[in-house]
Amino acid sequence: MLVEYPARLYIVAGLLLLIGFGAGTGSQALAFVAAAVAVMLLPGLFTRQSFVSSEEEDEEREPAEPVVLPDDTIGLEVLEDAALVVTTEHDVVAANSAARELLGTVPAEDVRLAIRHPVALEAVDIAISERSEVVRELDSFAAAGRTYRLRIAPIDEHRLLMNFVDYSQVRATERMRADFVANASHELRTPLATVSGFIETLQGAAADDEAARTRFLGLMNEETSRMTRLIDDLLSLSRVELDKSMRPRTRTDLLALVDEFSETVELEADAGGHEFIVDAEANLPPVLADRDQIFQVLRNLVSNAFKYGGSGSPVTLSLRRAENSVLVSVRDEGEGILPEHIPRLTERFYRVDAGRSRRLGGTGLGLAIVKHIVERHRGKLEIRSEPGVGTVVSFTIPLAGPLSGEAGGALPALPEDLRAI
């Protein structure tokens, strides 16, 4: 028989009333029956035990139904980064599209087979055993050179959320910043050490040597000028990076800008014995550009052509209409650049010949500044060179007006006279 607690308590109380009623009225049979039933119900009255049938005992011993974990429990698709829901039994029960793209088909799979990264699996075991949040950084995860930040947090008693955030760009930026600081410190320390050495010499052995003093003062002037140029380029690069996300919206007459630029470089061209040639297509439409920054790009490219183009060789500035942009090219007829150097020319402080670059007054930042300015204008930069023939540096600037837009994709073909390189 099955009598659950607290129903048994109420029945016993009723029987006690019947015993008292039977004794009071002389109904001894009623009092005896009520007392007998009450005695039968007394065992287990205060321990919540009950009499159950064998069938009911078997039912109680059957295992509980497994916890159902639906695939859409927490709406993982709202998360931009890869995310998984994993049970405490290591089963993957949900994955968003970013996780499937990163790891492949993962739901209903053991997480230890889906991930196969020792640091990640160790983090899963810790999160399961300690029921706490775990954060780890995964190097070379999913692909060589990729870094992910893994965060594992309990959702409830049976489930964990695994979130993978791609930190590769963050780590690359940190390394680039560290390299930049180290390189900038080195570039400034070299001329400072030179100037300091000259000062010590002038204060000592060469204090009364007029010829040495004149020579050293000239060298000191060159070194301080070099430091000034370096600081100016560093500040310029910082300003360009600060504005990089803001695309220029000013309509600029490129032909008028080139006319003004040509007047400013005449003295530099004459000093190096160069012929500066402007080959511009007539009636070019306005472009969307920051006038000062495009002026700076032209100055950097033409100055490089003068420095490395060989004494007395011509330098050509070409402007052509190209679909929804203007293609600007600067060509020299110098020694050219070996192919292995070209991909790195826009890196900060990268030089093909460091000693020669310093002698010519280069800071190693000119092409890095050019690259950032062109990217800010949503243009494309290309460097083509052939040893013994020369170098052509080209970039595009989007047109203003209804034809303007992103100048994505490959650069348009170079003018006919520049295709030899």
From TrEMBL:
EC number(s) reported in the record: 2.7.13.3
Q: Which SUPFAM superfamilies match?
A: ATPase domain of HSP90 chaperone/DNA topoisomerase II/histidine kinase (SSF55874), Homodimeric domain of signal transducing histidine kinase (SSF47384)
Transmembrane spans: 7-23
Q: Which UniProt keywords apply?
A: Kinase, Membrane, Phosphoprotein, Transferase, Transmembrane, Transmembrane helix, Two-component regulatory system
Reactions mediated catalytically? ATP + protein L-histidine = ADP + protein N-phospho-L-histidine
Q: Which Pfam families match?
A: HATPase_c, HisKA
Q: Which residues form the Histidine kinase domain?
A: 183-401
Which InterPro entries has this protein been placed in? BphY/WalK/GraS-like (IPR050351), HATPase_C_sf (IPR036890), HATPase_dom (IPR003594), His_kinase_dom (IPR005467), HisK_dim/P_dom (IPR003661), HisK_dim/P_sf (IPR036097), Sig_transdc_His_kin-like_C (IPR004358)
Name used for this protein in its record: histidine kinase
